[in-house]
Write a structure and sequence with these properties.
Number of helices of chain A: 0
Number of strands of chain A: 11
Number of helices of chain B: 0
Number of strands of chain B: 11
Distance between the termini of chain B: 33 Å
Shape of chain B: globular
Largest sheet of chain A: 6 strands, mixed
Distance between the termini of chain A: 41 Å
Order of helices and strands of chain A: EEEEEEEEEEE
Oligomer: heterodimer
Largest interface: A-B, 25 and 29 residues
């Protein structure tokens, strides 16, 4: 079966750093994705990891450990506009195949 | 167009009514996906196409759900005899051509279906 776990909710302070964890057990692995979704809007692509290690993109970084079935999304210098749901998703098979999503982590950034 | 386009954005259907949801993917994207998202949950896979071929429909919740993409571009998700549990956001997504980094999936704004 496919199982992707991430915390349901997190709260962090403006200007701080927050780490959102994701663990997965899937039948195969061909990449892990993070999406951001503001309420009432479409998920938007943030990052992609297929090899172990850290991928940095501005204020956002994503880490992957395939042996541990683990990833995290790191958000630095938090801004109020970062309040959103963050979705972890895994592609189990090669090619343009569907992603399996976790339930999402709702992040609230407070002043 | 520049992104994935879906219509209608909002649909209120009476229980038992049939609905059709349309998706226009990003030009040149051969793969198209349909997901269902309930409030406060992550997207759940329904079905996907590569060009006009429906390669996987294992996520369709019942035989009341039907999807097609006859010419390999626009797709329609049809729900027959809608029921209240069908109320959700239906997200369409398309994917970059094979070989592109990560084959990233790009989502449309979604069609919000409410069955009353």
């Amino acid at each position: 079966g496919q199982n992707i776990d991430q915390p349901t909710e997190m709260t962090a302070t403006e200007g701080a750093i927050v780490q959102i964890n994701c663990t997965y057990q899937t039948s195969g692995f061909n990449g892990l994705f993070w999406y951001q979704q503001h309420a009432g809007e479409a998920p938007t692509f943030l990052s992609y990891n297929v090899l172990d290690g850290l991928e940095e993109k501005g204020r956002f970084s994503s880490f992957l450990s395939r042996s541990k079935g683990y990833s995290y999304l790191l958000l630095k210098e938090l801004q109020m506009k970062d309040s959103a749901s963050y979705l972890c998703a895994v592609r189990s098979h090669s090619g343009n195949t569907p992603l399996v999503f976790g339930k999402g982590t709702r992040l609230s950034v407070i002043a | 167009g520049a992104g994935v386009s879906q219509s209608p954005r909002y649909k209120v259907a009476k229980r038992g009514q049939d609905v059709a949801l349309r998706c226009d993917p990003i030009s040149g994207h051969v793969s198209l996906f349909w997901y269902q998202q309930a409030l406060g949950q992550g997207p759940e896979f329904l079905t996907y196409f590569q060009n006009e071929a429906q390669l996987d429909k294992s996520g369709l919740p019942s035989d009341r759900f039907f999807a097609e993409r006859p010419e390999g571009s626009v797709s329609t998700l049809k729900i027959q005899r809608t029921q209240q549990e069908d109320s959700a956001v239906y997200l369409c997504a398309s994917s970059t051509p094979p070989g592109d980094s990560g084959n990233t999936i790009y989502f449309g704004e979604g069609s919000w279906l409410t069955v009353v």
